[in-house]
Amino acid sequence: MGISNLEIGKTNLDTFAQTLMELAANDRDILVVTSDSRGSGRVTPFAEKYPDQIVEIGIAEQNLVGVSAGLASAGKKVFVVSPACFLTARALEQIKNDVAYSDHPVKVIGISAGVSYGALGTTHHSLHDFAALQAINNIDIVAPADNFETTQAIRAAVHHPRPIYIRFGKKPMPDIHAPNAHFEIGKAIQLTPERERSDVALIATGETVAPTYLASRELEEQGITCCVLSLHSLRPFDEESVRQAAERSSMVITVEEHSVNGGLGSRVASFLMQAKIFRPLSIVGIPDEHTITGSQVEIFNHYGISPQGLSQNALNLLEKEAE
Amino acid sequence: MNNYSSMTIKKLHPLPVEKIKILQQKSLLYRRTIVQMIYRAKAGHTGGSLSCVDILNVLYNHIMNITPENFTEVNRDHYIHSKGHSVEALYAVLADKGFFPIKLLDHLEKHSSDFIGHPTRSVLGIEQNTGALGHGLSVAVGMALAAKKDGRPDRIFTVMGDGELTEGSIWEASASAAHYRLDNLIAIIDRNTLQITGRTADVMNMEPLEAKFTAFGYAVRHVDGNNVEELVTLLENLPFEPGRPNLVLARTVKGKGISFMEDQVQWHHRVPTEAEYAAALLELEQAEKYLEKADGHF
Prior knowledge:
The structure holds two protein chains of two kinds. Chain A has helices at 12-24, 44-49, 61-73, 84-87, 92-101, 129-134, 147-158, 209-221, 239-247, 264-274, 296-302, 307-322, and strands spanning 8-11, 30-34, 54-56, 77-83, 107-111, 140-142, 164-167, 172-174, 189-190, 198-204, 226-230, 233-235, 249-259, 281-286. Chain A is α/β, with parallel strands linked by helices. Chain A has two domains: 9-174, Rossmann fold, CATH 3.40.50.970; 189-322, Rossmann fold, CATH 3.40.50.920. Chain A has a seven-stranded mixed β-sheet, sandwiched between helices. In chain A, strand 2, helix 2 and strand 3 form a beta-alpha-beta unit. In chain A, helix 1 (12-24) packs parallel to helix 7 (147-158), helix 3 (61-73) packs parallel to helix 5 and helix 8 packs across helix 12. Chain A is globular, with a radius of gyration of 19 Å. The relative contact order of chain A is 0.13. Helix content of chain B is 40%, strand content 11%. Chain B has a five-stranded parallel β-sheet with strand order 1-2-3-7-6, sandwiched between helices. In chain B, strands 4-5 form a two-stranded antiparallel sheet. Chain B has helices at 17-41, 46-63, 87-96, 136-149, 168-179, 200-203, 209-215, 228-235, 274-293; strands spanning 78-81, 156-161, 185-191, 194-195, 198-199, 219-224, 246-251. By secondary structure, chain B is of the alpha/beta class. Chain B has a single domain (4-293), classed as Rossmann fold (3-Layer(aba) Sandwich), CATH 3.40.50. Chain B starts with 16 loop residues before the first helix and ends in a 5-residue tail after the last helix. In chain B, strand 4 and strand 5 form a beta hairpin. The relative contact order of chain B is 0.18. The chains are: A alpha/beta, B alpha/beta. The interface between A and B is medium-sized, with 26 and 30 residues.
């Protein structure tokens, strides 16, 4: 555990591309496969430096993922890089059958995930990807919170024995973790000090971890104790960390850049109910409606995925419980 | 009446006649295995398995370098059964090749069996799970590209159904096969002209297929896909044109080899009754006898 200075760093997208460049220098089996998405994926420098290690497929996501499965079956370490919205919808059947079912450890990289494309609209949003992929077995699901988690996730992905989906956005992210933090796929990272009791457990994933952590600081200033988890892996799902955070807290708030249906919140709720850990619960995400238009941050603010919105949500939940 | 009276062996090819005869015997053996396993399981895709089995026979017994011994290696030929529903043909060939005991086929589509109604990697000899149509070609493109990148001489074969060709992903994959000049990719269309609803041309007309595939950049060849000698002759000459992916339009007959199943849409996935099963086995037996007698009369 370690909180860095929350200064704005690079985008997770740039971090991903840079990490891949470093890894490819020593591993000629690393391949990047793109769908006219090398610019969007910031892998143009990769393509220039390692022209033999990039495969262009054009705007054809089904073929993109099928070809990636074939390359992986021959031992290549394949990073298939495409906007999350198209990759996990247009090519869902290829992810399900050619990658997950056929057990080829392709690294499926969903760029500009969630509402990163903001005002470009629902065609370009991926608010379904956690739900869709959680219903498909044999593909791990990771949404890194900051540059540190992104670097670690990409490094871990190279030798990951199973198919893995990693999704992130394109906005500069604050550094949440100290560079010496411990990262392991499937293990949540607690951002707050160890405590026997907290008022609120805040469990967030991906780029909503930063506003969630800031919300916890606002709440702490008001004397409300918080346990904040960066649950970067939806699969493997870290039951132990979620269990402990919930058991030690009076209520639970989950936060995600995803539909409130079928994502982190649903997963946490399902786990807690079945583990007989009953806590008041608020699932914060994008509600089941036509998404409001605007930039990513405007959409976040509109739906309360902001330090103010989340701390108010916690206060409301506490007040309701007090009644 | 069966149609084996036309099964004369013309000497088209330098391959010894005896070898052609062995392949023809294997085709009959595989047809017997297919019909038996489908009858016992009370499930399966009879017609499509019978139409493509001669292609698989020639690939596995004469063209491809795939054996139980080298299967775990990357450096060999590769095969993807894109028309996954015709898995019974593949099971019959793989059992004969020694990938698994033929007795295991008694478990076809049984609870917890690895031998389900589509190919999976749980069965030794199968390297890609298929069943959803239009997937095999893309995966084959990836495998062919990997072989090219690594300088391996391996060739990647895939058999697709003609009903499958309406899947858009086939055409995405075709563009990339030509773009990357994958002359180590061999796509074979089992052109039996029937799909579950009826004639492929009536369901969705994809003709002219040769012109389409040629326009996409393939070297296209035609063959009688139920004639092992023609298949041998054609497939011994790969690649057809250096720098181009290979595409074979194999004219076949759905239900081939059992007279009352031939070219009948209902045999797409019909299971023979007891009487039909007996009649089918009798026809195959007669064909085997005919072939045996044909010895020396080529």
